[in-house]
């Protein structure tokens, strides 16, 4: 016999296949209960959007062998239950073809649900910086929480919250690079100083191509920003792209590099100041070519 939770609707029993129904206790908050997996729905505002497939496959294999060792947290809704924390375990359980999973049922309002989902992901370090930024933005815009309140709830400083939210000012392409773990949050914060979308994308791509560190990226961006802020003189300012390439070459070669562009052709000048430095540059260039 199935005990139905009050307020979940008359059709709830029909959601559970005949002969596969679980006993659902109706009152004890925090008590672990087994719930049929088809009664559980994902959280549409789950902060975490990307799930690493390799890690997911490993979790599915573990669940098949040992089951779920840690219950997920759900809250009652009109047509069953909604996940508050543990969507990855729920997804893996479905892939492992489990029929029911252990859950902790909590009565939560929308703000509490969002906070718990965010905290759980942060404690597990499951969110990339962009997902984290969107989660903070949702708490501020939808639930009217201040940065100070979020800081208190999750144990992060207010400047950390502010700097993370600022990552949403990056171009979509740069955000994708961060979400795919191609750029770190340190690289992303450096890129924020570049307002031109095209130049920001070019720098991001060159960070990947040349494996620039965060410090190298910050140095490169600093030079570009300084040049853009200089007042134009009589000479025509170099194109941003040429300046950018010059800085990449300077970083890699460790010496002054100038690109001189003509109407139909140009030249690259690499300076050296001793025979030893010339030898070093030749060896470095030969290594890059081969």
Automatic annotation (TrEMBL):
GO cellular component labels: chromosome; nucleoid
GO biological process: chromosome segregation; positive regulation of sporulation resulting in formation of a cellular spore
Keyword Metal-binding appears in the UniProt entry: no
Cell compartments where the protein resides: Cytoplasm, Nucleoid
Domain ParB-like N-terminal intervals: 33-122
Domain of life: Bacteria
A GO molecular function held by the record: DNA binding
Keyword vocabulary terms for this entry: Chromosome partition, DNA-binding
SMART domains, per the entry: ParB
CDD domains (alphabetical): SPO0J_N
Keyword DNA-binding recorded: yes
InterPro entries: Chromosome_partition/occlusion, HTH_ParB/Spo0J, ParB/RepB/Spo0J, ParB/Sulfiredoxin_sf, ParB_dimer_C, ParB_N
Signal peptide: none
Family label: Belongs to the ParB family.
Protein name (record): ParB family chromosome partitioning protein
Organism: Marinisporobacter balticus
């Amino acid at each position: 016999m199935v005990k139905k939770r009050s307020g979940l609707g008359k059709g709830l029993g029909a959601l559970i296949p005949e002969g596969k129904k679980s006993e659902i206790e109706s009152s004890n908050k925090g008590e672990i209960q087994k719930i049929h997996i088809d009664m559980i729905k994902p959280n549409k505002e789950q902060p975490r959007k990307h799930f690493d497939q390799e890690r997911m496959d490993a979790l599915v294999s573990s669940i098949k062998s040992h089951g779920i060792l840690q219950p997920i947290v759900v809250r009652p809704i009109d047509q069953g239950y909604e996940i508050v924390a543990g969507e990855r375990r729920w997804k893996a359980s479905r892939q492992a073809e489990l029929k029911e999973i252990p859950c902790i049922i909590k009565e939560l309002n929308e703000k509490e649900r969002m906070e718990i989902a965010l905290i759980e992901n942060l404690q597990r370090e499951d969110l990339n910086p962009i997902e984290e930024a969107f989660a903070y933005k949702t708490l501020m815009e939808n639930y009217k929480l201040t940065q100070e309140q979020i800081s208190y709830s999750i144990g992060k400083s207010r400047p950390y919250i502010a700097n993370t939210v600022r990552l949403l000012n990056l171009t979509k392409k740069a955000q994708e690079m961060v979400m795919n773990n191609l750029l770190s949050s340190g690289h992303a914060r450096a890129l924020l100083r570049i307002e031109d979308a095209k130049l920001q994308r070019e720098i991001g791509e060159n960070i990947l191509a040349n494996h620039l560190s965060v410090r190298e990226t910050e140095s490169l961006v600093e030079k570009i920003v300084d040049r853009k802020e200089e007042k134009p003189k009589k000479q025509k300012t170099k194109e941003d792209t040429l300046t950018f390439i010059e800085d990449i070459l300077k970083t890699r070669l460790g010496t002054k590099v100038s690109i001189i562009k003509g109407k139909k052709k140009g030249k690259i000048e690499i300076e050296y100041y001793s025979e030893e430095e010339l030898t070093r540059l030749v060896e470095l260039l030969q290594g890059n070519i081969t």
